[in-house]
């Protein structure tokens, strides 16, 4: 696996490969890799000649400085995992490399940038689109792989790709869960044993919602999930919503697919999860 830390060196290396007609699949991460990330690498591996992965803990998408500070950074372990997953190229720049000076970034994302995660983490998607735009500009991938785990992020980046007319195919990959149902996340390492048990309520609520989707009304599904989650000791619910899977507007009447999205705090750790629902 080749490792690059500067944009210039990566651009130069990739340009030679592109001349040879190689297709490039790209997986953007913040490191502390787990099976969820590795599944994206695996899918990209199958569909492209070359896989590029980036590890960059992007400061502009953190609205909580403490969250940024305590974000796990096990670099050596990540490198080994990527080698075993047969990733071809790792890009791991430092903050100065990606943000050499002061800069302004704003992209109009409309409704998507006002609800759910956007409402609870102001500025988060401006930071996400800012860094993903930079990474796409360096890697210029044919295909980019993102996890359904961050469902709203997929929608936001897809909106950016359309708006900026980028030539990259967006591919959403399924959520990888631990055997107990907890969606894998780099932040799970912060959970104590008892917090981990508490956190299982998120996937449980989503599972029940999916199971009852055909038979219960939307308002009952929402009420039941919220009631269940609000009664879990040590869990502070931020939102539970059933939405249109494209617009993320609240679903008023069942039509085709929907998505249920949840966010909660367990101790100091903020967790998100979701499930696609079909009637
Ligand atoms: P992150 O390092 O958290 O920024 O995540 C990098 C990419 O991995 C994003 O596209 C995430 O949606 C994806 N990802 C994170 N956790 C999972 C998971 N449990 N299953 C599938 N994809 C995931």
Could you characterize what this model shows?
The chain contains 10 helices and 9 strands. It has 279 residues and is α/β, with parallel strands linked by helices. Strands 1-4-3-2-5-6 form a 6-stranded parallel beta sheet, with helices on both faces. α7 crosses α8 and α9 runs antiparallel to α10. It is globular and about 55 Å long. The mean pLDDT is 97.
Write the topology of this structure.
Blueprint: E1 2-4, H1 7-19, E2 24-29, H2 35-47, E3 50-55, H3 65-69, H4 75-84, E4 89-91, H5 95-98, H6 117-120, H7 124-139, E5 143-147, H8 151-163, E6 169-173, H9 193-212, H10 218-230, E7 235-243, E8 257-266, E9 269-278
Parallel strand pairs: 1-4, 2-3, 2-5, 3-4, 5-6
Antiparallel strand pairs: 7-8, 8-9
Helix pairs in contact: 7-8, 9-10
The site of adenosine monophosphate (AMP) has 17 residues, from helix 2 and strand 5.
pLDDT averaged over residues:
97
Bound molecules: adenosine monophosphate
Main sheet specs: 6 strands, parallel
State the end-to-end distance: 44 Å
Helix content: 25-40%
Overall radius of gyration = 19 Å
Low-pLDDT residue intervals, each spanning 5 or more residues: none
- Give the amount of beta strand, in percent: 15-25%
């Amino acid at each position: 696996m080749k490792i690059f830390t500067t944009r210039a060196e990566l651009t130069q290396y990739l340009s030679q490969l592109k001349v040879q007609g190689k297709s490039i699949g790209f997986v953007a991460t913040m490191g502390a890799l787990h099976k969820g990330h590795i599944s994206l690498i695996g899918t990209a591996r199958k569909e492209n000649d070359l896989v590029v992965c980036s590890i960059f803990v992007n400061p502009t998408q953190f609205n909580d400085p403490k969250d940024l500070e305590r974000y796990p950074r096990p670099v050596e372990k990540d490198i080994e995992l990527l080698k075993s997953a047969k990733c071809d190229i790792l890009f791991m720049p430092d903050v100065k490399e990606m943000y050499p000076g002061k800069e302004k970034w704003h992209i109009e994302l409309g409704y998507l940038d006002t609800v759910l995660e956007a409402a609870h983490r102001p500025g988060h998607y401006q930071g996400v689109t800012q860094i993903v735009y930079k990474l796409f500009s360096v890697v210029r991938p044919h295909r980019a792989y993102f996890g359904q785990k961050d469902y709203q992020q997929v929608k936001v980046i897809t909106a950016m790709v359309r708006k900026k007319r980028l030539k990259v195919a967006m591919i959403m990959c399924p959520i990888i869960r631990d055997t107990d149902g907890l969606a894998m996340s780099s932040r799970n390492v912060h959970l104590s044993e008892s917090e981990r048990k508490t956190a299982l309520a998120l996937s449980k609520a989503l599972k029940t919602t999916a199971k009852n989707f055909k038979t219960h009304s939307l308002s009952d599904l929402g009420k039941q999930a919220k009631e269940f989650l609000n009664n879990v000791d040590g869990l502070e619910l931020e939102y539970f919503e059933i939405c249109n899977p494209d617009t993320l507007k609240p679903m008023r009447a069942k039509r085709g697919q929907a998505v249920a999205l949840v966010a909660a705090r367990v101790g100091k750790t903020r967790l998100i999860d979701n499930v696609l629902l079909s009637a």
